[in-house]
Amino acid sequence: MQPLDSEKSLIKISHCNKDIFGSSVPKHCPLCGQSLVYRKLEEAPVSIPSPFVNGHRERCSFLLKPTTGTFLSGYDGSSDLHVGITNTKGLVYNYNEAGVHKAEHGWEQCVNIPLVQPDMYGLLEQWDLYLEQFSAAEIWLPHRYDEHLHNCYTYALMFINCVLSAQKQQPMNKSEFTEKFVIPRTRKASKYITIYKEICKNGFYTVDHPSQEGGTSTVGRLTS
Ligand SMILES: [Zn+2]
């Protein structure tokens, strides 16, 4: 298996009535061998951006990654996930059975949900202090940890709700936050993982062209 850069875009072209995914723009169709000149607009290569970012470069974000390994290596679709919140300097605050950690590395391949608009200067200025004070609270001591009821997600969501309440906004419960923000991104990520793994294995990955099938291809929606 040839590992690819996890932050690199994948490429989709259409030929032989199929969508063909690869790691770069091919000169020849991998199916029929025909030289590709991309004369028609519908044949033009489309870039599929990676859903993963280096979390240490994302400020004021909610991050999600597998507890062990990475999404593109070792993750089987049902492995445990771990979440954290970044400060403005790329430190990832996260909570587990050993308490709150401020990670300088280990979050290089994450799904991220930005929590602050770039023009919210007041909040950006306060963010690191908020996060530090919030994390120092007694409820995040190691013995308070519970795998199901008081975990990394409890910690991250409670912090988000503290920020929302400071801005006089309504809090969100776990299912609201998950459905509205997390699931759309993990769905996109899981499609990317499928394509990525096939490309690593075979060099390219094909799906029947939606217009030829008369149905909608789930993979095709990755670009939307
Ligand atoms: Zn072809």
Automatic annotation (TrEMBL):
Membrane-spanning intervals of the chain: none
Naturally occurring in which organism (per UniProt): Pogona vitticeps (central bearded dragon)
InterPro entries (UniProt xref): MKRN2OS-like, MKRN2OS-like_C, MKRN2OS-like_N
Protein name: MKRN2 opposite strand protein
Protein's gene: MKRN2OS
Annotated ranges, domain MKRN2 opposite strand protein-like C-terminal: 45-199
Signal peptide positions (record): none
Record domain MKRN2 opposite strand protein-like N-terminal: where: 8-36
PANTHER family: MKRN2 OPPOSITE STRAND PROTEIN (PTHR33963)
